[in-house]
UniProtKB/TrEMBL annotation:
The keyword Lyase applies. It comes from Streptomyces ramulosus. PANTHER family: PHOSPHOKETOLASE-RELATED. Residues 636-838 form the Xylulose 5-phosphate/Fructose 6-phosphate phosphoketolase C-terminal domain. Its cofactor is thiamine diphosphate. It is an enzyme of class 4 (lyase). This is Probable phosphoketolase. It comes from the Bacteria. Residues 58-419 form the Xylulose 5-phosphate/Fructose 6-phosphate phosphoketolase N-terminal domain. CDD domains: TPP_PK.
Length: 845
C-alpha cells in the first residue's frame, strides 16, 4: 500500500521542471512543465482575463493544507464504496459496517480528487469563475466527496449534513437502492456531464466555454475515454475557440495506465510520440508524473499556475492588444497510478497501478477477515482523525483552499445553467410568414423561410451572445444561409481570399463531426444558453447514443428541485428521406424519430410540419421551450403552402387537425374513409389522393387529417401530448378505414396507436427501405406512398367500394405503370405529377 507521506518531507518523484517547447519532454520520472515562455503578466489585465496573482509554488503550510484536502476526499471516496456504518472509524471495522453489495470505481478516484483539490486552490487564489467536466466514467465517489467537503452537497441535500451523521448518509446512499449513481450524474452538484458518456467530455467543455468569456472550463479526460472517436475529433475544437468572446478549456489528460481490463493506448506509446500528438492538436502540454503525494502536489500546483498564466497572456493579447493569431492553448498530462493510495496488493497479487484497481480493489471484505483488516488499514492510512473533528466536521486545514459561494465547483451557476438562462428574443413570426391566398396555390422552401427567422434571432442576440446554430457543413445546403446576414461561421484557423462567411467571432458552428456538433450544443445549453442543431436527416443517427444520455440527463434533472430548467435541445432534420433522390440510398433514413420517441415521454417531442408557416410556428415553440429534446423534420425543397400563419398556429397547437377544406364529408354522417398524413411529402401525396378521389368518386365522403405532433396519437397516459380516447375516436373514427401516409417507417404509427379502438382499421404507408438515385416521385412510388397507391388503398378498404370502383383502381394502377415507363425514358417525373397543384374543384393543374 502506498501510504500518503508527510508532504512537507516528501522528496520522491513528482517535481515540476520547465521544458523547452521545441522538443519532447525528457523523461526522468519527475513531472515536467512544458510550453513556450510568455511575456510577464500585465498588472492591468483586460476584463475577463485570468489574473495570474497566485504563488508559483506551494509554501509548506499550503502544501500541508492541499494534502489534507486530498486525503479527506480520498477517505470519503473509499468510504462511499465500502461503508454503511462507523464512518469515522471510531471503533474497529466489523462486517456489519460494510455494505452488502460493493459497487463503485476506485481506480480513477484519487486522480480526480487530486485535480479537484488543485482546482480549488487556483480558483480561490485567483478568484476564478470555473467549472469542471469529469470525463472518467465512474469517478462519482471523488466528485461527491469534494462537493460534500465544499458544502454544496449539503446545501442541495440538507439531510446529508457536513458532519458525522451526514457522512454516514453520504456513504450509505452511494450506489445503494434509493441513493445516487456511482458516476457523476445530474444528482451531483456542479456536474453538467454524465459520467457514463465516455468520449464526450471535451466537446461538452468547449460548448460550455463558447460565449462565456470569463469562464475557465477544466476537463479531465480519462485514458480510456481518449481512445473513443468523439474524443479524437474533440481535440480540433480549439480551432473554433475565440479568445476574445469565449472562455477557455483546460484539458487534463489523466494517464493512469489502464482501462477496466486492458492497458490504455496513450499510456503505452513512446513519450515523444504522445508529445508530438498533443502538439499536433495545437496544445502546449505540461507533464506531471509521480507516485509520491508531496512532489506531485508541488508539480500539479506549478502546472496549474503555468497553464493559467499562459491563458491570461493569450487572452490579454487577443482582448487588449488585438492579436489575431490562433493560440496554442496549454493542457496538462497527469500520470499517477491507477488506484493510487489504495491497496498495493491483495492476496499477493498487484492491485495499485494495475487494471485490478479499476473498481473495488477489496471485493470480499464482509466474508474475508484478512480483507476487512486490510480495508481498515487502508482507510486509517488517510489519518481521518486529523481531517475531521469529533463531530465529523472537516477541520479548518482541510477547507483552507476551498473557494466560497458560487466560486465552489459544486455551486457554480454555470453547472446549473437554468440559473443563468434568459428568454430568447424571438422576432414576431409575421415578419417571416409566407402569404397563402388559398391552399396549395403557391410553393416555398420551408427551411429557407425558417432561415430568415433564425437570422432575426441571431441579430437580436448579437450583444448578449447566447444563441448558436451548429451543424456538420450543411447550413447553406439546408437553406439556412440567411443566418450569414447576422453572423459568420466560427473559425480560428487560416483563412484564404476564396473563403466565405468565416470570422473569429462567428456564431454558426460548422464541423464535419455530428459528435462535436451535438456535444458543443449540449455544453452550451446546460450552461444557460440557446441553440439549434441542423443536420441531414439520415446522419442524425450518428449521435443516437449522445441524445440518449442528454434525454436521460434532462429526465433526471427535471425531478431535482434544485436543478433549474434549461433551454431545449432542438434538432432540425432536413434534406430528408423523400428528397434524397439525388444522393441515393445511403442518404435515406428517417429512423431518428423512432429512436427519440422510444425515450422518456416527459422529455421528447417530435414535429412534422407540412409547410413553411407550420415550420415557423413549430420552431417558435421549440426555441421557447425548456427541458425538452425537440426533433423537427422539414424539407428544404419547394413545398406547397397549405396554411396561413394564423391557421398554422392553431393547427400546431392542436397537433392533429381535420382539414375540412381538403375532404368531401358534409357533416351529415361519418366519413367513408380517413386520409391521414404526417410530413411534408406525405401531406402532398395525401392531398393529391384526396383530389383524385374528389374527381373520380365524388360521392365518397373523405376526411383528411394532418398530424404535426405524432405523440398526439399516443394515449394520454403514455405521453403528455397524448389524446384522450374520445378525442382520438372523434378525429379518426372508431370503425372507418384510415389510410395513413407517414414520413418515416410505418410501424412507428402502428406502435403509437396499437391501443386505440380502431387500430385494426389503420393501414399505414411509409418508408420501406426502398431507395436509390431516382426522381422525387419515384421515391414515393417505390415505397407505395404515392397518391395513386393511396387511392387504391381507399378503394380496397372501404366496404363494398372495390366492386363499384374497379375502373378507378385500374386507372390508378395504370398511372403507376405509366410513371415507371416515363421516368426510365425521360429521367423526370410524369408531367401530371410534376405540374400538379391543389384545386378544390378537382381540375388540378
Amino acid at each position: 500500500m502506498s501510504h500518503p507521506t508527510d508532504p512537507a518531507d516528501a522528496t520522491g518523484s513528482g517535481s515540476a521542471v520547465p521544458e523547452d517547447s521545441t522538443g519532447a519532454a525528457e523523461r526522468t520520472g519527475h513531472a515536467r512543465a512544458s510550453g513556450a515562455a510568455d511575456p510577464p503578466p500585465s498588472t492591468a489585465p483586460a476584463r475577463h482575463d485570468l489574473v495570474p496573482n497566485a504563488p508559483a509554488s506551494l509554501s509548506p503550510t499550503d502544501l500541508a493544507q492541499v494534502d489534507a484536502q486530498w486525503r479527506a476526499a480520498n477517505y470519503l471516496a473509499a468510504g462511499q464504496i465500502y461503508l454503511r456504518g462507523n464512518p469515522l472509524l471510531t471503533e474497529p471495522l466489523r462486517p456489519e459496517h460494510i455494505k452488502p453489495r460493493l459497487l463503485g470505481h476506485w481506480g480513477t478516484s484519487p486522480g480526480l480528487t487530486l485535480v479537484h483539490t488543485h482546482l480549488n486552490r487556483v480558483i480561490k487564489a485567483r478568484d476564478l469563475d470555473a467549472v469542471c467536466i469529469w470525463g472518467p466514467g465512474h469517478g462519482g465517489p471523488a466528485v461527491l466527496a469534494q462537493s460534500w467537503l465544499d458544502g454544496s452537497y449539503s446545501e442541495v441535500y440538507p439531510d446529508v449534513s457536513r458532519d458525522a451523521a451526514g457522512m454516514a448518509e453520504l456513504f450509505r446512499q452511494f450506489s445503494f437502492p434509493g441513493g445516487v449513481p456511482s458516476h457523476v450524474a445530474p444528482e451531483t452538484p456542479g456536474s453538467l456531464h454524465e459520467g457514463g458518456e465516455l468520449g464526450y467530455a471535451l466537446t461538452h467543455a468547449y460548448g460550455a466555454a463558447f460565449d462565456n468569456p470569463g469562464l475557465v472550463v477544466a476537463c479531465v479526460i480519462g485514458d480510456g475515454e481518449v481512445e473513443t472517436g468523439p474524443l479524437a475529433a474533440s481535440w480540433h475544437a480549439n480551432k473554433f475557440l475565440d479568445p476574445v468572446h469565449d472562455g477557455v478549456v483546460l484539458p487534463i489528460l489523466h494517464l493512469n495506465g489502464y482501462k477496466i481490463a486492458n492497458p490504455a493506448v496513450l499510456a503505452r506509446i513512446p513519450d515523444a510520440e504522445l508529445d508530438a500528438l498533443l502538439r499536433g492538436y495545437g496544445h502546449e502540454p505540461l507533464y506531471i508524473t509521480g507516485d509520491e503525494p508531496g512532489p506531485v502536489h508541488h508539480a500539479m500546483a506549478a502546472a496549474m499556475d503555468r497553464a493559467l498564466d499562459r491563458i491570461a497572456a493569450i487572452q490579454r493579447r487577443a482582448r487588449a492588444d488585438g492579436g489575431t493569431e490562433r493560440p496554442r492553448w496549454p493542457m496538462i498530462v497527469l500520470r499517477t497510478p491507477k488506484g493510487w493510495t489504495g491497496p498495493h496488493d491483495v492476496d499477493g497479487v498487484p492491485v495499485e497501478g494495475t487494471w485490478r484497481a479499476h473498481q473495488v480493489p477489496l471485493p470480499t471484505v464482509r466474508e474475508n477477515p484478512a480483507h476487512l483488516r486490510q480495508l481498515e488499514s487502508w482507510l486509517r492510512s488517510y489519518r481521518p482523525g486529523e481531517l475531521f473533528d469529533e463531530g465529523g466536521r472537516p477541520r479548518p486545514e482541510v477547507l483552507a483552499h476551498i473557494p466560497e459561494g458560487d466560486r465552489r465547483l459544486g455551486a457554480s451557476p454555470h453547472a446549473n445553467g437554468g440559473l443563468l438562462l434568459r428568454d430568447l428574443p424571438i422576432p414576431p413570426l409575421e415578419e417571416y410568414a409566407v402569404a397563402v391566398e388559398a391552399p396549395g396555390r403557391s410553393m416555398h422552401e420551408p427551411t429557407r423561410v425558417l432561415g430568415g427567422l433564425l437570422e432575426g434571432v441571431m441579430a437580436a442576440t448579437a450583444t448578449r451572445r447566447d444563441f448558436r446554430v451548429v451543424g456538420p457543413d450543411e447550413t447553406a445546403s439546408n437553406r439556412l444561409q440567411a443566418l450569414y446576414g447576422a453572423t459568420a461561421k466560427a473559425w480560428q484557423a487560416a483563412m484564404l481570399p476564396t473563403d466565405e462567411h468565416l470570422a473569429r467571432d462567428g456564431r454558426v458552428m460548422e464541423v464535419l463531426s455530428e459528435h462535436l456538433c451535438q456535444g458543443w450544443l449540449e455544453g452550451y445549453l446546460l450552461t444557460g444558453r440557446h441553440g439549434l442543431f441542423a443536420s441531414y436527416e439520415a446522419f442524425a443517427h450518428i449521435v443516437d447514443s449522445m441524445v440518449n444520455q442528454h434525454i436521460k440527463w434532462l429526465r433526471t434533472a427535471r425531478r431535482l428541485p434544485w436543478r433549474r430548467p434549461v433551454a431545449s435541445l432542438n434538432y432540425l432534420l432536413s434534406s430528408h428521406v423523400w428528397r434524397q433522390d439525388h444522393n441515393g440510398f445511403s442518404h435515406q433514413d428517417p429512423g431518428f424519430v423512432d429512436h427519440v420517441l422510444n425515450k422518456s415521454p416527459e422529455v421528447v417531442r417530435v414535429y412534422l410540419p407540412p409547410d413553411a408557416n407550420t415550420l415557423l410556428s413549430v420552431a417558435d415553440h421549440a426555441l421557447r421551450s425548456r427541458d425538452h429534446v425537440n426533433v423537427i423534420v422539414a424539407g428544404k425543397q419547394p413545398t406547397f403552402d397549405w396554411l396561413t400563419l394564423e391557421e398554422a398556429r392553431a393547427h400546431c397547437a392542436r397537433g392533429v387537425g381535420v382539414w375540412e377544406w381538403a375532404g368531401t364529408e358534409d357533416g351529415s354522417r361519418e366519413p367513408d374513409a380517413v386520409l391521414a398524413c404526417a410530413g411534408d411529402v406525405p401531406t402532398q401525396e395525401t392531398l393529391a389522393a384526396a383530389w383524385l378521389l374528389r374527381r373520380h368518386l365524388p360521392d365518397l365522403a373523405v376526411r383528411v387529417v394532418n398530424v404535426v405532433d405524432p405523440a398526439r396519437l399516443l394515449p394520454r397516459d403514455a405521453h403528455p401530448h397524448g389524446m384522450p380516447d374520445a378525442e382520438y375516436d372523434a378525429v379518426f373514427t372508431r370503425d372507418r378505414p384510415v389510410i395513413f401516409a407517414y414520413h418515416g417507417y410505418p410501424w412507428l404509427i402502428h406502435r403509437l396507436t396499437y391501443r386505440r379502438t380502431g387500430h385494426e382499421q389503420l393501414h399505414v404507408r411509409g418508408y420501406q427501405e426502398e431507395g436509390t438515385t431516382t426522381t422525387p416521385f419515384d421515391m414515393v412510388v417505390r415505397n407505395d406512398l404515392d397518391r395513386f397507391r393511396l387511392v387504391m388503398d381507399v378503394v380496397d378498404r372501404v366496404p363494398g367500394l372495390g366492386v363499384r370502383a374497379v375502373a378507378v383502381r385500374q386507372a390508378m394502377a395504370d398511372a403507376r405503370t405509366r410513371h415507371h415507363a416515363w421516368t426510365r425514358r425521360h429521367g423526370t417525373d410524369l408531367p401530371e405529377v410534376a405540374d400538379w397543384t391543389w384545386d378544390e374543384g378537382g381540375d388540378g393543374a
